[in-house]
Amino acid sequence: MPAMRVRAAQSHAGQPQSGSMLDPVSVLVARAQAGDAEAFGQVYGRYADQVFRFIYRRVLDRQVAEDLTSETWLRALRNLAAFRRPGGDFSAWVTTIARNLTINYLQAHQRRERPLAEVHDLVSADDVSGPEAAAVQRLTLEALAEGIAQLSPVQQQCINLRYLRELSIEETAHALGKTPAAVKAVQHKALKALRGLLPMTVVMPA
């Protein structure tokens, strides 16, 4: 009798559990890894917009974002066999590819002057309406842009990557070739310098 119970338990353990069924994305990825082009197209359809938005928020240039998105998916296709399943998060995997390409791009295309519109995200201000309020806000933005222009090149790059491109400390460190601790120090000095350069009406991030 004990032996029968053991065999029954082993037989039951060998059956797939309902909770271990692969999710639809994992099934599509598995098919794509086996050479199913249509399955890869469906995976692309699920995540293409997400990848584009991720990149665009950081490069702020539609054409560049489209180019980097295309390169992201080309690399994903070429390296699809390296993706581990089941249990792997394909969304995180493809986003990592996009992040690395974006950081490489930003590292190679740092510019000291930024369009005035990009500086807007650094200013904490109430919604404005009317020509007078709009004029005041524009003066505020111009003051901020002028203040950033007075920072050192590395401080400008740090502010650009951290607040305009919304990169993390670690991503910024990678882009600048510095340690996270060094980036924090540069960021602190840059914000302190800006607070001393700008009018009191400009509220800087903490």
Automatic annotation (TrEMBL):
Pfam families: Sigma70_r2 (PF04542), Sigma70_r4 (PF04545). InterPro entries: RNA_pol_sigma-70-like, RNA_pol_sigma-70_dom, RNA_pol_sigma70_r2, RNA_pol_sigma70_r4, RNA_pol_sigma_r2, RNA_pol_sigma_r3/r4-like, WH-like_DNA-bd_sf. It comes from the Bacteria. Residues 44-112, 148-195 form the RNA polymerase sigma-70 region domain. GO terms for biological process: DNA-templated transcription initiation. CDD domains: Sigma70_r4. Keywords: DNA-binding, Sigma factor, Transcription, Transcription regulation. GO terms for molecular function: DNA binding; sigma factor activity. Residues 1-20 are annotated as: Disordered. The keyword rRNA processing does not apply. Belongs to the sigma-70 factor family. ECF subfamily. This is Uncharacterized protein. It comes from Micromonospora noduli.
